Amino acid sequence: MTPPAVLSPLSLVASVAAVAAGGGGGSVVPPTDVIWWTLFHYYLFFGLAAAIIVIGFMIFMTFHHRIRKNEHLESRQYAYHPREHNWGNWKLIMVLVIITVSVQAFVEYQTFASTSLVTLPSKGSDPLTIGVIGRQWDWVFVYPDGVQVVGNLTVPQDQDIILNITSIDVLHAFFIPALSVAKDAVPGYYTTLWFNATQTGSYLIECKELCGVGHAYMLAHLSVIPSPAFQAWYSTLAENNSQ
Amino acid sequence: MTRWISRWLFTTNHKDIGILYLVGSLYFGFVGGVLAMLMRTQLSAPLNSFLDAGTYNEVVSMHGLIMILWFLSPLGVALANYLVPLQIGAKDLALPRLNALSFWLFLFGGMIALLAFVIPGGAESSGWYMDMPLATAQYNPGAGPTLVFVGLAMDVAAIMMTTVNMLLTIIYMRGPGVTWRRVPMFTWFTAFMLIQAMFAFPSLMAGLLLLVADRVIGTLYFSAASGGSILWDNVFWFFGHPETYVVLLPAFGMVAEIFPVFAHRNLAERNLILVLTAAAVVPLSYLVWQHHMFITGIAISENQAFSISTIMISLPFDLIVIAFLKTLTKARIELTVPMMFAWSSILIFVVGGISGVMLSSYVLDVVWNGTYFVLAHFHYIMVGASVFGLFAGIYFYLPRMTGRLFHQGLAKVHLILSFTFFNVAFFPWFFLYDMPRRVFTYQPLPSWDMLNLISTIGAYVFAGAQILLAINMWYTLTRGEISPPNPWRSPGLEWVPNITGASPGYSQDALLPASSPPPAGVQSELEHTSARPIELAIAMAVALFGVALLTSYQFGWIVVGIGFVLIAYSIGGWMRDDYREKFKIPPQVSETWPFDKVAKERLGMWLFIATEIFLFGAVISSDIYIRLNAPSWPAAGSVLDVMTGGWSSLALISSGGAMVLAVNSIRQGSQSGLVRWLSAAFILGWTFIVFHAYEWYNMYYMDKPAFTVFSGLPGSVYYVTVGMHAIHVVSGLVVMAFVLRKAIAGGYRKEHHTGVTNLMLYWLLIDIIWMFLFPLFYLT
Asked: Which residue in the set B271, B325, B358 is minimally distant from A61, CB to CB?
C-alpha cells in the first residue's frame, strides 16, 4: 500500500483540494486515492492521445478534401460496384490492430495491477472493521462494540478501515469521493470496501444509487481524527451508550 | 377525411408505417426533451426548488425510458421501415399487418405509459433501469408505475414482432439481383441491430412479466431478500447492454450510406466493417452486461472477465471508426447538412467511445459508476452518436420521402447549434465525476454549481435547436422546392423509383407531392389496408390498462374484461379475414440462399421460436437463481403431486405426438387423418389444462396449508412460470381450433399445409419447455 515515489500532478492537485476542503492535517495521499488516480492517468494519457490523433485526422482530412464553393465538381468520381469492395489494405489494418490491442492490453494490465483498490488489505494491517447499514435515507455505522451512530462515520487517521456494507430496504451505494472508494449496499448481502484516511478532516459520504425521494439528501460525514483522539472518542461513545 | 383515416390508421404500407414511426418517435423525443428541460432547470442551481424530489424521480426515470425505448429505438425502426424494402427491392415487409400492429402497440404503449403521470401513484420513479426492490409495489406503490411497465411491455412486444418481421424481409424478400453481397450498408446494419434485438428484448420482456406479476399478483421475484435486486440487474442488463448497440447500429448504417455519397468515393473497407460488426460486435455485446454491476459486490474474477470482454468490444468499434475515416481520405467531400450530421456523429462517438474504454476498468468504475461521468459517456453515445447519425438519415432521406428539398439555411443553423450546444450541455458532466446521478438537488459547491449552470444553458439551446428540425420538416412538406429525382446523386436502389417515376413492383410513395403522382395501376394490387392491427393494439392497451389498475383497484377487472372482449373480437376478425383470404399479398420470388429450403412462414416461425426460447430461458434462469439463493426450499413431492404432474405431462407430450402424426397425414395427402390427429392433439391439450386447473384448485382450496402464489418464493416461482407456460398452451389451443376448423373444411392439401406445420413447431416448443419445467418443479 505504499504510494509510488512520484505522483502525477493531477493526483497531487486532487489531494491538495481534498485537504483544502477538509482543512485537515497530514501530507500523505490516501492509498486508495493513489491507486485510483495513478490508474486514471494511464487511461487519460492514451485516451487523450487517441482522441487528439483521431479527431485531428478527421478534421484535417475533411477540410483538406472539401469541395470549395466555386469549385465545379466535374463528374462522379466513383461508381457503385458492390463487387469491387475488397479487403483493402490489410497490412495497415494489422498494424492498427496491433497498436490498439497493445494499448488496450497495457491499460487492462494496469487495471489488474490496481485490483487492491477493490480487494481487502492483507491481514497484517490490523484493520478496524465497521458495519454500514444503508436505509431510506441515511447511513448507520455499527462499531465493533455494537454502538450505532447515524450519519457520522468517525475513523482514526492512518489505519486501515474495512466497511461491511448492507441495506435493509432498497439498493443504495456508499461513496466517499475524496477517497475514491464506493460499493453498493445490497439488501440481503454484505459487500466490503476498505480505505486508509491519511489526512484528518471531514469528508462527504454520498449515496449514488437512486433509492427513493430522499436520495439526494442521503449524505453522511466521514470524520478522520488522529488515533489518540479516536480512542478517546470511542471510549466516550461506549460510555454514553452504556449509560 | 375518411380517406385520410383509412390511409393513416389502417395502412399496412411499409412507407406509411415508416412515416408514422418517424412522427411517433419524434413526438416521444419531444416529450423526453421536455422532461430533460425540467431536470436541467431544477439542477441549474444548488438547492433549487423548481421540482420536488418525488416529481424529479418520476421525470428522470421517464426521461430515460422514453428516450431510449420510445424515441431512439423506434427512430431507427422508422428509417428501417421506410428504407429497407426500398434498398433491397422488396414490395413490402414480409408481414405487413404485423408491421402495422407493431407500430400501434408502440404508440399506445407509449401513450398509456405517459398517462401514468396523471393517475394515482404517478409515473415510474425507480430510474430507467428500474432498480429492484425500489420498483416493487412496496417502495413504488400505486397503479401508475404498473401502467408504465405494461406500456413498456407493449413496446417491447412491438419491437420483438418488428424484429422477426424485418429479418424475414431481409432474408426472404430481396428483389431479383439483390444478392447478399449487394445488400446496402443501412440494411446490413439494420439486420445486425435486429439480431441483437431478437436476443436482448426477450430478456427484458421476461423481467417485465415477472415485475408486473410481483406488482399485480403479489409474487416475490424481485422483493426477495435473497438476491432479488441482483437478479434484476442480471436480467435487465442482459437486455440493457445490447440495447445500446440496437440504438447505435442504425445510426452507423446511416453514416455508412451517407459518407460515400458526399465523399464521392466507395466506402472504405466495407467488408471489414461488416465482418467486424457481425462477428465481434453482435456476439460480444451479450458478454459485457456485468460491467454495469462492477460495484454490486460480484466476485473479482467476474469483474475481471467482464472488464476484458468490455475492452475487447471496443476493438471492432475502433476499426469501424477508422474505416469510416479512411472513407474521408482520397475523397472530394461535399459539406452538406446530412454529411456534417453523420460526421458529427462519428466525432462524438470517438469521445463517447474513449470514455467507454475508461469505464471498462473495474477499478476506475468504482468512482464513476452511478455518477455524472457515466451519464456523460452514454449521452455522448446515445444522443451524440445515435441521434446525430439518425438525424443525418432524416435530412438525407427527406427529399425521398416528401419529393421536396428542405430549407438549407435552417438546417445549417440546426446543425451548428446542435453540435456546439450538445457539447456545452454534456461535456461538463465528465468533470462532475463525484456528483451522484439522479439527485434532485445538491449542496452548494463551487465546482458543481458552475458546471451545472453551463450544462443547463447548453441543454436549453440544444433542445431549442431541435425545434428547427420540426419546422424544417413541416416547411419541406408544405412549401419546399420540388426535389430532383435523386438530389444527392446517390447510387442507392432506394432512390430508383424517383428517377424513373415509379417502377413496377414498388409500392406507392408515402408523401410524394401531387405534382408527381405515381403512375396508375402500380399500387392497385398492393393497396392493402386493414383495421385489425389498430383494433388489436387498442384492445391490448385497454386490457393492460386494466391489469395496471388491478394494482390498486378491484374495478380493474371490468376494464380487463372489456379489453379481453375487444382482443377476442379483433383476433376473430383477423382470422376471419385470413379465412376469406381478404388480405392477400402477392408472393415474391427471390434468391434466398442459404434459406432456400425453408419456406418464408416457416422461417418466421423459427425466428419467433428463438425469441420464445430466450423469453423462457430468462424466466427459468431467474427461477433457478432464486432457488439457489433461497434459504430453504420444499423437497420434491412435498407440495406438488408428482402423479398429477406426471399424468398431465403425459397428456401434453402425447398431444405433441398427435400433432406430428397430423402433419405426417397431410404430407401423405390424408385430410381425414389430419382431422383425426388434430382432434386428438386438441383434446389432449385441453386434458393438460384440465389437470392443471384441478391441481391448482386443490393447492389453493384443499391443501392445508394452502400453496398459493402469495405463500412464499416457491409459490411465486411455480405459479408464474407454469402459468406463463399454460397461457402459451391455451393460445396454441385457440390457434389449433382455427386450424382444425379449416382442416375440417378441407383447407389444407398435400402441397399446401404451412399452417399445420407451423402450429406443430410451436406445439413442440411448448412440449420441450414443459420438459424443462416438469423436472424443475415436480422432481427436484
From this structure: B325
